[in-house]
């Protein structure tokens, strides 16, 4: 069974640009979660999508947004990039009936110059 | 604000010894508890889940839960250098996971 996949693995942008990160969940999983992990820091919850709807949002500004597609894959968009957005962005997925058991993808490392 | 607290470490343990990692949480209503392992530069990997008070064993790993005292711990027996990683504690609260900052574990050969 394929795990959670994310693309791209690395992304380099300059300040003010937009970044789009993609995630495909494990087959059969309907929930997708996005996290930010800055270097040496813990996981910060960004967004939770389930069945195409945004279910919860962490304490991040509106320039962090996303969506979930009918096939349950998801996109995270970060507008007006700032230097402090440089981090590892992790996507996780779960089954609807066990939403707290999350499985992570390999992450996208975003560098903002 | 629901919280999960972990000692950031690093916790240094000799090879072959028992490593003991602890986590406390604030939400008395939490029902599900998880330990993830994260190697440097990699994504977290689920290693244990526990839902009931007491101990749960899986190979060299034992998770312990005490809901009355609001703590959960992870014991690693016969520690190996490959166990060197950051261990993240996660606790469910209102249908989302609250994460600890992680404890860095170093196993010394």
Give an overview in words.
The complex is a heterodimer of chains A (113) and B (109). Chain A has no helices and eleven strands. With 113 residues, chain A is mostly beta strands. The model of chain A has no long low-confidence stretch (mean pLDDT 93). The N and C termini of chain B lie far apart (40 Å). At the A-B interface, strand 10 of A face strand 5, strand 9 and strand 10 of B.
Please name the defining characteristics of this protein.
heterodimer; A: 113 residues; mainly beta; seven-stranded mixed β-sheet; four-stranded antiparallel β-sheet; globular; B: 109 residues; six-stranded mixed β-sheet
Could you give a short description of this structure?
The complex is a heterodimer of chains A (113) and B (109). Chain A has 113 residues and is mainly beta.
> What's the quaternary structure here?
heterodimer
Q: Please report the number of helical segments of chain A.
A: 0
Could you estimate the helical fraction of the residues of chain B in percent?
under 10%
Of all protein chain pairs, which has the greatest interface, and how many residues does each chain bring to it?
A-B, 18 and 19 residues
DSSP strand count of chain B: 11
Strand content of chain A: over 45%
Low-confidence stretches of chain B: none
- Radius of gyration computed on alpha carbons of chain A: 13 Å
Q: Shape of chain A, please?
A: globular
Give the class of chain A from helix and strand content and strand pairing: mainly beta
User: Globular, elongated, flat, extended or rod-shaped: what is the shape of chain B?
Assistant: globular
Largest sheet of chain B: 6 strands, mixed
User: Which class of secondary structure composition applies to the elements of chain B?
Assistant: mainly beta
| Mean pLDDT over all positions of chain A | 93
N-C termini distance of chain A: 37 Å
What composes the largest sheet of chain A? 7 strands, mixed
Number of helices of chain B: 0
Kindly report how far apart the N and C termini of chain B lie: 40 Å
Unreliable stretches of chain A, pLDDT < 50, 5 or more residues? none
What is the percent of helical residues of chain A?
A: under 10%
């Amino acid at each position: 069974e394929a795990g959670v996949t994310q693309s791209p693995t690395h992304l380099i942008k300059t300040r003010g640009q937009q970044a789009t990160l993609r995630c495909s969940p494990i087959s059969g999983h309907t929930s997708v979660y996005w996290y930010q992990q800055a270097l040496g820091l813990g996981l910060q919850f960004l967004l939770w999508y389930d069945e195409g709807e945004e279910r919860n949002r962490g304490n991040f500004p509106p320039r962090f947004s996303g969506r979930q597609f009918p096939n349950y894959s998801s996109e995270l968009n970060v507008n007006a990039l700032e230097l402090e957005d440089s981090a590892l962005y992790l996507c996780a997925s779960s089954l609807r009936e066990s939403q707290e058991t999350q499985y992570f993808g390999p992450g996208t490392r975003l560098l903002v110059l | 604000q629901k919280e999960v607290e972990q000692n950031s470490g690093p916790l240094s343990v000799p090879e072959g010894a028992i490593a003991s990692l602890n986590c406390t949480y604030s939400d008395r209503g939490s029902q599900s508890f998880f330990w993830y392992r994260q190697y440097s530069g990699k994504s977290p990997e689920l290693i244990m889940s526990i839902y009931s008070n007491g101990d749960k064993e899986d190979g060299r790993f034992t998770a312990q839960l005490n809901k009355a005292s609001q703590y959960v711990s992870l014991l690693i027996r016969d520690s190996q250098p490959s166990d060197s990683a950051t261990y993240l504690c996660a606790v469910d609260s209102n249908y989302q996971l609250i994460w600890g900052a992680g404890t860095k574990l170093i196993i010394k050969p």
